[in-house]
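Reopening this one. Same input as before:
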Amino acid sequence: MEHLIKLLEAINKNNNVSQKKLSDLNDISIGKVNYLIQEMLEKGLIYNEKKGRNMNYFLTPKGIEYLQQQIGSYQDKKVNIHYTDVKKEITQAVILAGGLRKDFNCPAGMLKVEDKELIKRNIEILQEIGITKFVIVTGYMKDAFRELEDFANITFVENKRYKWTGSMASLACAFEHITDDFLLLEDDLLIEERAIKELAASPLRDCVLITNESGSGDEAFVEIRNGFLYKVSKDIHQFNRIDGEMIGASKLSLDVFHMMVRDYEQHNRNPYMNYEYMLLDISRNFNIGYLKLFNIVWAEADSQEQFYDIKQKIFPMLKRKEAEFRENQIKGYLSAALGIEPDEVTGIQAFGGMTNKNYKVTIGDKEYVLRVPGNGTEKMISRSEEKVNSSLASELGIDTELLYFNDETGIKVSELIPNAETLNSKTAKREDYMTLTAGILNKLHHSGIKMANTFNVFEKIEEYELLLKEVNGSTYSGYEEVKSQVMKLKQQFDAMVFDFVPCHNDTVPENFVKSGEEGIYLIDWEYGGMNDPMWDIAAHSLECNFSSEEEELFLTIYLDQELIPGEIKKRILMNKIYQDLLWSVWTNIKEAKGDDFGNYGIDRFNRVKENLTNPLLTEKTYELKK
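Same output, byte for byte:
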């Protein structure tokens, strides 16, 4: 079949060609050529005419149609560039922000809608789905973006020729900073957050986001064939059919990105080319997928008129739709968890949560707490261990009843604490409150329950260091030297005689919730596990910023004795050092992902160095293991 097609193509290009020439051109034996010529004559694909000594061959109408079908079939076949359909986690995003906007006195992405810049809104959405590294390609008024420097982990790249180039030139500027698959957005894009989330979640590694036609007059129309991108153009007259309109958001694999840049740099002679058309060029040989979402609320701020429309109509519509989507999502969680109808949920109120999202929900005449884990927490927390430990705490009566816990998603539903008053670092210093918190810790530490795991701070530190490397973060200056001193301290700690008991391991004051006059609960068991009980005491003292006198008072209540043994003081100091080192690395991870914790992390790291010089560490105040 392949040789027959080659002969038809050769004859189509030159009818005055001998069988010997056909043999040479197609690397086929003369005998094979003669056989195929006879076959084509019999099938009516060609006819021949003798002119002098030469035999000329011509394609019949049937032969032309056959050749066209075979070439078309061949052209529809494309290469799958990726060898697996396993979904790849995306942690990088590129935002193109170099375009000139004469209508505005700032880059379009820095336009504010309800006191938030368009680009900041998109960065926050991307952070929520796990994007930790951003590359922003600037050009027009590049310095306007500098206020974003502390907002996220951003690398700025300048397209110095932004006045004379298109978006492909800007994308190529990011080449050295892209190390893996990434999301690509335009800075002036306003779009529903669910659209970006669904794009990131698509199993396709190369995927353009499209929706139904907007009628804006500036649409980039899209045609799909055989399930993949076939044509993109703003000229409607070029299409046999229109399958949607392209939105300024895509997901690209590193392989396809490299092809785009290579082809652009080697072959392109049009500096104004946009990346969509370079991607289209790549799609002629490789499969580029798509995600079509219907009735998405979105807009681009290309002009004053469009921006006015965004503020007056599009954004209010988007807010209503996102609020409705979140409400339906929460109702869906509760419906699946508790086996109720969604309309039985009559109230939803967001509250609290440093890394998770918590909601007070009303079902009938009862109130509950829904916990939805923050993105990326599954790498830092074992939900199966948390489920066991939370259940044990509920059975022990030191946490509320646990109604539902999904150890795959981390979604949790528990009873709401009545008359709840969450402690803070100020109220936790009151002696009557110390009595309550010391009492509940005593109940936990002396309960005899066996938790699902052991909280090993040194293993946690190693684990967090690996996570930090994954997000391209870095520790504070001098970290390795400080860590080596801490590891030497561990040898003393390991020689001490004491039992590991069930511990909470995150005894910040906000995890203690007072109920009425005498009741108190200890919530959020994400870090629970068997440990030295002095870890909980040390953590509570640090997080409440106890003075030495306040810590002594708390210990006398907890131990129910006036004299505090030196060995207890030393273990508390050691645990403070371990915690400060651990949570400084935790802060490095969070900040590498774009969160801002101010001086929290560096202050803890500096306190490690200070406490390592404490004379108490060199005193022999403990019994050695035999």
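So the earlier flakiness isn't reproducible anymore. For the record, The chain has three domains: 2-75, 92-302, 421-618.
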